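Exercise 7. Given the encoded structure of a 150-residue chain, write a plausible sequence.
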C-alpha cells in the first residue's frame, strides 16, 4: 500500500493542484476515514485463516449491517469491563493530548530539551502505563495472540 501510494504521488499532486482540496477540512476528514478503513481491512487479513474468508467477513459489514445493536444494549454484553472502559478512555485522552501537543511542535524534541529527571520520568511513566494498562494482566491468554496461528 505504501509503495502504491508513493508511485501515485505525482497523481495526488496533480489532483491537489487541480481541485485545491489540500487543507480543506472535508478532504482531511475523508483522508482519515479512508486510511482507517484501509488499515482495518488490511489488519483483518491477520484475523482469518485465508483471504476468501477475510473478504466474506469484511463483506458482511456492508451486507449484514444491523444498526439496532448500537441502541439495544448489545454492545454492553460484549464482555468489556469497567477496567476496559478506563483503559480505552485513558488511551483516547493520551492520543488526544499528544495530537494537540504535536500541533505546536514535535513532542520528542520538546522532551529532549527538558532536564534528565523529567525525560527519564516520562519514559518510566510510559513504561508503567504499558505494564498497568497492557494486555498481560489477569485473564491474559497467550493462545489468543493474533499471530499464534502462524
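Solution.
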Amino acid at each position: 500500500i505504501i509503495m502504491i501510494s508513493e508511485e501515485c504521488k505525482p497523481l495526488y499532486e496533480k489532483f491537489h493542484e487541480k481541485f485545491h482540496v489540500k487543507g480543506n477540512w472535508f478532504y482531511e476528514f475523508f483522508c482519515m476515514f479512508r486510511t482507517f478503513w484501509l488499515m482495518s481491512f488490511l489488519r483483518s487479513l491477520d484475523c482469518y485463516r485465508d483471504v476468501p474468508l477475510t473478504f466474506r467477513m469484511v463483506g458482511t459489514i456492508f451486507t449484514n449491517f444491523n444498526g439496532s445493536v448500537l441502541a439495544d444494549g448489545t454492545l454492553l454484553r460484549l464482555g468489556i469491563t469497567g477496567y476496559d472502559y478506563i483503559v480505552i478512555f485513558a488511551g483516547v485522552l493520551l492520543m488526544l493530548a499528544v495530537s494537540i501537543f504535536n500541533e505546536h511542535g514535535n513532542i520528542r524534541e520538546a522532551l529532549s530539551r527538558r532536564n534528565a529527571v523529567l525525560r527519564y520520568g516520562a519514559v518510566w511513566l510510559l513504561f508503567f502505563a504499558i505494564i498497568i494498562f497492557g494486555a498481560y494482566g489477569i485473564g491474559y491468554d497467550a493462545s489468543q495472540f493474533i499471530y499464534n496461528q502462524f
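Remark. The CA atoms of residues 8 and 111 lie 36 Å apart. Students should compare their own answers with the one above.
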